[in-house]
Design a protein that fits this description.
It is a single chain. The chain is of the alpha/beta class. It is about 45% helix and about 15% strand. Strands 1, 2, 3, 4 and 5 form a 5-stranded parallel β-sheet that branches. The chain is globular.
């Protein structure tokens, strides 16, 4: 099993429910014991009390100077953290991955060669029918089957 302190977790967030995110950060910190949990936090200014709450939960927080989007927040965080941590794990701030699932993913990444672990979740059928186009449902289903087969 890889050393836990070589793991950094990135949780990009845009105006999340701060209480739930703080609880998620605390649970990740307790169960996974990573070297860092980093929250690129769009939609908040420096000095906002919400930032302090996340820091007390165990996260480092960096609000960007302007709205940058999840992709830019994620790649910027990975660029900064890759020089200090051997393993990087991206999780959604909305807790789409349970702490147990995150721990399983973290165990899969590491070792002597580069590894990529991809976690996915099975959407609820009703929500999938209401919110996805036919093309997206087919693509998502094929992706889940491919990921599960790997």
């Amino acid at each position: 099993m890889p050393d836990k302190t070589d793991l950094a977790i990135v949780l990009p967030a845009y105006r999340p429910p701060i209480d739930r995110l703080s609880e998620y950060v605390e649970a990740l910190d307790t169960q996974l014991g990573p070297g860092r949990i980093h929250v690129p936090f769009d939609g908040v200014q420096d000095g906002d009390p919400q930032l302090r709450r996340l820091e007390q939960a165990g996260a480092t927080v960096s609000p960007p100077p302007d709205r940058q989007g999840k992709g830019a927040a994620l790649s910027g965080a990975f660029d900064r953290l890759a020089t200090s941590f051997d393993r990087l794990l991206f999780l959604d701030a909305g807790e789409s991955a349970s702490v147990e699932s995150a721990a399983h993913l973290a165990e899969q990444v590491g070792g002597s060669s580069p590894t990529l672990a991809i976690g996915y979740r099975q959407p609820q059928q009703q929500a999938e029918r209401q919110n996805r186009t036919g093309y997206r449902r087919v693509f998502s289903s094929a992706y889940r089957q491919l990921a599960h087969a790997s």
